[in-house]
Amino acid sequence: MEKSAKGFPTSHVIGFLFSLILTFVAAGVALKTSLSFTVIMWIIGSLAVIQAGLQLFMFMHMTEGEDGKTNIINIAYAVFVAVVIVLGTIWVLTSGHAAH
Amino acid sequence: MGIKWDEFFITGDPLILGAQISIALTMIGIVFGLTYLKKWNWLWTEWITTVDHKRIGIMYIISAVLMFFRGGVDGLLMKAQTSRPEMEFLSSQHYNEIFTTHGVIMILFMAMPFLIGLMNVVVPLQIGARDVAFPQLNALSFWLFFSGAMLFNISFVIGGSPDAGWTSYFPLAGKEFSPSIANNYYAIALQIAGIGTLMTGINFIVTILKMRTKGMTLMRMPMFTWTTLITSVIIIAAFPIFTVALALMTFDRLFGTHFFTVSGGGMDMLWANLFWLWGHPEVYIVALPAFGIFSEVIATFSRKSLFGYKSMVYAIVGIALLSMLVWVHHFYTMGSGPAVNSFFSITTMLIAVPTGIKMFNWLFTMRKGRIKMTTAMLWSLAFVPCFTIGGVTGVMLAMGAADYQYHNTLFLVAHFHYVLIPGVVFAVFAGLYYWWPKMFGHLLNEKLGKWHFWLFVIGFNVTFMPMFFLGLSGAARRTYTFSAESGFAPLFLLSAMGSIVLAAGFAVFCYNIYWSLRYADRNISSDPWDARTLEWATATPVQHYNFAKLPEVKSLDAFWFMKKNNEGLTLKDSEIEEIHMPSNSGQPFIMCVLFGISGFFLVFEWSIAAAVAALGIFAGLIYRSFDYNDGYHIPVDEVRETELSWRNKKGEAHKHVS
Amino acid sequence: MSANVNTSLPLEYQSGQSRMNILGFWIFLGAEIALFATLFGVYAVLSGRYAGGPTHQDIIMIREVMIQTILLLTSSFTCGLAIFEMRRGNKNELIMWLVITLLLGAGFLYMEINEFIHYVHIGASMQTSAFLSSLFVLLGTHGAHVTFGIGWAILVIIQLIKRGLTSVTARKVFIIGLYWHFLDVVWIFIFTFVYLKGLVL
């Protein structure tokens, strides 16, 4: 739980700066470097995941309160489902005869 | 744009004309009856505006029984059409429409609301709560389901029934090959009902996680509550996928996009992929609560605690994860290649393992139990062998290579009826016989119940067993007729005769409801089955605040031990307090009407009118945001009076001491 | 139900009903994750299917996209500040930061609508190809969420002004804060996997 008397929103400012930096680094890697497509996608994909985590923990305070644990399980399950949906759909529909 | 009035009502088919006339007569009859008996006010204040989870549950169940009738008639029409070779009872188009609506109605408007209805009635009682977490949202869920169900059901008299199968595969379901508005009903009615289901899922997760009574840890929850929790979790994961798929279908059909079309780079199998990404978890959404019902019934009537409670919990949690990983087994023949098909073969066979664990748990629960052969227990007993046949043929179908032989034959149709009828229909019947007194204060007639049981189970087996053999000899599903030379005629005829017995069973069930409502003994105790869980620890029928004093739980099968140790059964005057309850609201019903109107215009591709009606929906949301109604309190005197009226009766375990 | 009050917690968590609403909203966000994941999956499969129409490189305006991104990131930050002020009990600062958040959100929305108009203007409409269908629906769903969020937040601000900072209004502000941050998370993935990926190709 955050202390309500604190005068300066340090964690918010840090989170904000980080999100700006991550955004510009991702844009820089994607647009200004000549790395291979796969490498670039891994880098900017990871940066996106880090930034999403930043929002969840630093801005949304996912773990606070009596249901913090439930929230973590909930989001972890949702992420599992999201990964299955996205990667599963790509895999199933771009291999074998399905690709045509 | 706009409605073509000359095509508004379906004309030219005597069957449909008969249906139109009977619908009109029924509606006039209902309106006349309500006016004559001066029941409009009662209907509005006691039912339509209610936020009481038990009444909402009853409304779900009534809708489900009506939909069972509608879907059952569809099934009988199909069986009549295929009873002889080259029959000309239904046209091919009419047959297409009927197998489509049969599938949609039975899964989405019969199985789902029946189970959600039982969940509504039972789960808050089982966890010792006075209502669900969000009572008004619960009412909204029901009314959205109802809105979607009614919108879907008017299709066959207004505008035309969807005819592309309950799976509505593209490209057939697209504008190019199904140019009429009929398939819009599918996309839009299911969308509205689906939103309601999603909210039910959220509601039950929060209810179960946050509103359990003192002492009820997760591992002391009754099995039906566990399965409801996990079902709700799967709903949260799966229904958004369906929401998107249906929305994309709507876009393709109404606004000319290219998601699933053949032209413009669209991908028809993307629909199949999304449909089954939702559709397979959906099977578990309906199967898990059914397993929960069997667990309660078997434990009660074997007079033993459920065997392997912990392994049961792990099994259903495992199913929640695995159920998201098997969807491709519905379209192996798409040809995604050996890697994909092998992967999904293995996951599909894996998911049979937790289900097998449950089977053995139920059998061991019965072992050495003093079994009481009530109707509810009979359904549970019949479930075991029938469902096993469905499960084993499922493992046959799970093998990708073999599936190329079975795919789209009646073997598959027989398989999923052997899964869904024992796995869901037997369960809701068992649940209904078991929990009926909690809703209405009397039992269903056991003798009629046994007629219902035997006719239904025999009819079911005679109807669907021949389909395995028909399918193996090459009879394709969804074909409206067959030639005499095919040699299919004897088994098709047998199957059709079975369906008549099945229907007779259902008729006995309806008669049983009527008979019991009129004649059954009202003077029964609050615990007629000598049961084990908390829903039996209060009055029968349940008073609207559920519990005067919230029970305290010390173990699994809490009520059983309360009776055994004779603690927590009495209520002292000093323990009676004011009870806070949520207020009724007409808003959910108004939202149902608005969604229905908006959806209806959208079906007829009249976007502007739909948008205007949607403004009403937003107005409803804004109104709700400013609604600070905080409920009301039931005074102590009223609670005391209610409690006195059912405690201290002869044969009643509960006592009121002052 | 409304009993079970714990005044040692922040205002938005004090009543039992509020704690249930907040948990319920988190679970709703879980459903939203599945919803957007489906749209991303559809986009991933269809994004190479131009059907002879315009490609990513033909239509994406990266300068505008960067501005949109910064607007939304900043609005997420100011929304966080609003919650921060709420926990310190400063109603006026809370409303101020909420209004700033909404203005930033409206700016984002204005740019997105212009982007759509521009696309259609250069012959890239929703009906052109599977790629554009999936692009418009993915972006449009996010944009519709932002629009809905702005309307909703205005309702909450009105209630804050009328009723002051109570456990109910605090809970409403907190929930819309969660919603707003979540839309930012979705945007991060759109930015990465639609715009940046589209330009790398």
How are the SSEs ordered, and which strands pair?
The complex is a heterotrimer of chains A (100), B (658) and C (201).
Chain A: H1 10-32, H2 37-59, H3 68-94
Helix pairs in contact in A: 1-2
Chain B: H1 14-36, H2 40-48, H3 53-81, H4 92-126, H5 135-153, H6 182-210, H7 223-255, H8 268-302, H9 309-322, H10 338-366, H11 375-398, H12 400-406, H13 410-440, H14 446-472, H15 489-519, H16 558-565, E1 570-572, E2 579-581, H17 587-603, H18 607-625, E3 632-634, H19 636-646, E4 655-657
Parallel strand pairs in B: 1-4
Antiparallel strand pairs in B: 2-3
Helix pairs in contact in B: 3-4, 3-5, 3-15, 4-6, 4-8, 4-13, 5-6, 5-17, 6-7, 6-17, 7-8, 7-9, 8-10, 8-11, 8-13, 9-10, 10-11, 11-13, 11-14, 13-14, 14-15, 17-18
Chain C: H1 16-46, H2 56-59, H3 62-87, H4 91-121, H5 130-163, H6 167-200
Helix pairs in contact in C: 1-5, 1-6, 3-4, 3-6, 4-5, 5-6
Protein name (chain B): Quinol oxidase subunit 1
Pathway (chain B): Energy metabolism; oxidative phosphorylation
Enzyme class (chain B): oxidoreductase
Task: Please give a structural write-up.
The complex is a heterotrimer of chains A (100), B (658) and C (201). Chain A has helices spanning 10-32, 37-59, 68-94. By secondary structure, chain A is mainly α. In chain A, α1 runs antiparallel to α2 (37-59). Chain A is flat. The N and C termini of chain A lie far apart (53 Å). Chain B is built from 19 helices and 4 strands. Chain B is globular. Chain C has 201 residues and is mainly alpha-helical. Helices cover 80% and strands 0% of the residues of chain C. Chain C has 6 helices and no strands. Chains A and C meet through α1, α2 and α3 of A and α1, α3 and α6 of C.
